[in-house]
């Protein structure tokens, strides 16, 4: 968990999408605008120079033509005045005759010719101010610019009139207004640069989008793979920081899902084990303590938090004998529970026949050794009571805690633990050679107690064990009581030692008191 937290807090490498887009767009626009600026500067300088030359030439042309026409009109006006003056003198100073009439007709034809030519000149160079367009003034009103139309084609132009005042002559300058080819070329260059900038921006955007869409598509493929149930699949997408973060988040998600799936599977298995163990544990529950005149039987069973196969039982033989059995099972969980159930079935089947105790245990050992895997075993302590003689025959198959005998006469306890190794540990020869049978005669008031290792290993919250000596002391202290009272007091002491904590091992106790 700590490692994953560090991974989550670690800075992710690589540029962010916004940083990459900004950098690429800035570089592309810088290059394009630098080239465009250089082109605009060069072209603008040429266009300005060309426009200036063209404007001056056109202004000289228009103004020169206007001055030429004006001069010719003045000459024509002078000639007409002379012809009129000559005609008047001819009328007053000379008598009319044929020669005189012919001369006057020639003068009139000349005048008409001059008049027609003046009209043609005035029509060719005549200009008219365009209405509705403002007149601009410069230099304090000394220079004015009028928008005009020149000639029969009504060519648009400007009339620049310089009027210095103080009866100085007025000077007119005609300048063209039309857009030249150079101007159109400059406009085309500007439009072209705009199109190039837009195209470059689009290309950069497409490139950046491809840098994102590719990894996103790879992530989509990874998700499709994961959706098939392959939670071990790792994302392959790498790119900008956001894509890396997304890929790592998906990897963490799949890892969490895999862990959750494994935990769910383990929980499901655990639940099935618990359910099965509960059924097996119910099957291991012994019959009710036997009721036999002159004897007081009792049993105590406390379940542990974990699964286990330890059990106890009372076994009645056809001869009227009654056996008391307690077994410890190696291994925990469901395997231990199943081994305990198997051992109980074998022991109950053989011991309930009431035949030779040594032979019965030897047969159970052979069967159990064949069924359990190597290293698994069951320890057992069995006491077979003959009620007529009050004699106990005791067999111990590797059981840790001995049989505890409380003597009513002395008020003390003695431990009985014959030789023997656990069931299933050896396939036969060693078990049979080591197995011993002990006998014990119960006097009135005497008690025997058989326990598994659960009470001895019972721990406090601080880890302090109850211990075997403490178990024997409790038997000595309360052994004279009735079995039910004895077991109640033993339970109270054990629960007080555990102080409400869970039990690590089951507690199985059987007891018998001769009344």
* Architecture (CATH level 2) name of the largest domain: 4-Layer Sandwich
Average pLDDT, all residues? 80
CATH superfamily of the largest domain: PPM-type phosphatase domain
How many helical stretches?
11
3D shape: rod-shaped
Please give the share of residues in helix. Answer: 40-55%
Q: Tell how many strands the DSSP assignment holds.
A: 15
Classification by helices and strands: alpha+beta
Spatial extent as radius of gyration: 63 Å
Runs in which pLDDT lies below 50 for 5 or more consecutive residues are 1-11
Q: What is the name of the CATH class of the largest domain? A: Alpha Beta
Share of β-strand residues: 15-25%
Whole-number count of domains? 3
């Amino acid at each position: 968990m700590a490692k994953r937290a560090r991974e989550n807090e670690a800075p992710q490498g690589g540029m962010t999408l916004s940083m990459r887009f900004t950098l690429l767009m800035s570089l592309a626009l810088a290059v394009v605008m630098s080239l465009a600026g250089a082109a605009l500067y060069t072209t603008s300088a040429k266009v300005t120079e060309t426009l200036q030359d063209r404007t001056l030439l056109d202004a000289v042309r228009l103004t020169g033509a206007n001055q030429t026409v004006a001069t010719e009109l003045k000459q024509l006006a002078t000639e007409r005045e002379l012809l009129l003056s000559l005609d008047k003198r001819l009328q007053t100073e000379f008598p009319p005759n044929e020669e005189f009439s012919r001369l006057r007709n020639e003068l009139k034809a000349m005048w008409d010719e001059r008049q027609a030519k003046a009209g043609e000149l005035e029509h060719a160079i005549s200009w008219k101010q365009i209405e509705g367009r403002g007149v601009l003034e410069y230099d304090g009103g000394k220079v004015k610019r009028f928008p005009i139309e020149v000639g029969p084609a009504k060519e648009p132009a400007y009339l620049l009139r310089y009027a210095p005042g103080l009866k100085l002559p007025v000077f007119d300058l005609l300048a063209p207004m039309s857009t030249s080819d150079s101007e159109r070329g400059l406009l085309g260059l500007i439009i072209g640069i705009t199109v190039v900038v837009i195209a470059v921006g689009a290309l950069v955007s497409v490139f950046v989008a491809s840098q994102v869409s590719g990894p996103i598509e790879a992530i989509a493929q990874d998700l499709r793979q994961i959706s098939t149930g392959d939670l071990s699949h790792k994302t392959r997408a790498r790119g900008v920081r956001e894509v890396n973060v997304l890929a790592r988040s998906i990897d963490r998600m799949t890892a969490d899902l895999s862990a959750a799936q494994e935990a769910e599977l383990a929980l499901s298995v655990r639940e099935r084990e618990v359910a099965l163990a509960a059924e097996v544990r119910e099957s291991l529950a012994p019959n009710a303590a036997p009721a036999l005149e002159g004897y007081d039987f009792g049993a105590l069973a406390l379940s542990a938090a974990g699964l286990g196969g330890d059990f106890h039982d009372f076994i009645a033989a056809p001869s009227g004998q009654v056996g008391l059995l307690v077994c410890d099972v190696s291994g925990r969980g469901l395997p231990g529970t199943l081994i305990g159930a198997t051992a109980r079935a074998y022991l109950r089947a053989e011991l309930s026949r009431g035949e030779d105790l040594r032979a019965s245990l030897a047969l159970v050992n052979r069967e159990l050794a064949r069924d359990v895997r190597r290293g698994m075993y069951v320890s057992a302590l069995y006491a077979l009571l003959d009620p007529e003689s009050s004699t106990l025959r005791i067999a111990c198959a590797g059981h840790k805690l001995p049989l505890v005998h409380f003597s009513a006469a002395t008020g003390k306890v003695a431990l009985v633990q014959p030789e023997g190794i656990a069931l299933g540990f050896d396939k036969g020869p060693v078990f049979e050679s080591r197995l011993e049978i002990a006998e014990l005669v119960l006097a009135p008031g005497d008690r025997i107690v058989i326990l598994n290792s659960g009470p001895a290993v019972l721990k406090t919250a601080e880890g302090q064990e109850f211990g075997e000596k403490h178990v024997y002391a409790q038997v000595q202290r309360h052994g004279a009581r009735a079995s039910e009272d004895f077991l109640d007091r033993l339970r109270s002491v054990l629960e007080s030692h555990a102080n409400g904590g869970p039990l690590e091992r089951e507690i199985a106790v059987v007891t018998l008191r001769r009344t």
